[in-house]
Design goal:
Elements (H helix, E strand, L loop, with lengths): L2 H29 L6 H27 L5 H100 L4 H35 L1
């Protein structure tokens, strides 16, 4: 290994130590250990250190083809210590600032989406429902008016016919008229029995319920 390669390896390991320190603080900030279950923390810790190990091996492989020397470990420790002493405070402040910026942008996007997308859709929906309800009420009133008009016309047309039939009914023999009177009276009595029976059944069903 040449001298330039050793120096580059040392600088890379010092930078990797700083990166591991920053990654550890970032990981701890987002993981929030006290709020997580122990098994979740355990699995996340394993994955975190596995990723850090792979990244470190990739850097080492790119710099000196993966050769490991004792000074590489010392350079890592020096980089981590330098981060803790010199960079940690600035990095954590910058991290919190970035998190606040991202949260603010996220909330702003949500508010804009609610104002420009959700509220117009709700307003259009309400207007559509109101228009449909108004149209249904209008059509219903129109149908009632048409029904009343048809009933009035039919009444006007049939009234003379009713008078004629009423006059002709007087010339019908009394026996036939009495027959029809008794027939309709029986139908009316049968209807009253069915009506009373259904009413009694309804009352008894309500009592059981």
């Amino acid at each position: 290994m040449t001298l330039s390669t050793q120096i580059l390896t040392m600088l890379s390991m010092i930078g990797s130590g700083c990166f591991i320190g920053a990654s550890l603080d970032t990981y701890g900030r987002f993981l929030m250990r006290p709020k997580r279950a122990k098994w979740v923390v355990f699995i996340n810790d394993i994955l975190f250190w596995l990723v850090q190990g792979l990244l470190l091996f990739y850097v080492l492989l790119s710099v000196n083809e993966g050769e490991f020397r004792i000074y590489i470990l010392l350079a890592l420790v020096c980089g981590f210590a330098a981060y803790q002493c010199l960079i940690k405070g600035v990095y954590l402040a910058l991290l919190e600032f970035l998190i606040k910026c991202v949260v603010t942008v996220y909330k702003t996007i949500l508010k804009m989406g609610n104002f420009f997308l959700i509220k117009p859709i709700i307003a259009i929906f309400k207007i559509t429902i109101t228009m449909i309800s108004g149209l249904v009420i209008f059509l219903w009133n129109l149908l009632k008016w048409i029904a009343k008009l048809v009933f009035l016309i039919v009444k006007i047309v049939l009234t003379p016919l009713f008078w004629i039939l009423k006059g002709m009914w007087r010339f019908v023999p009394a026996s036939i008229r009495n027959f029809f009177y008794r027939f309709f009276k029986k139908i009316a009595g049968f209807y009253e029995k069915i009506k009373n029976m259904s009413g009694n059944l309804w009352i008894s069903w309500k009592k059981k319920k």
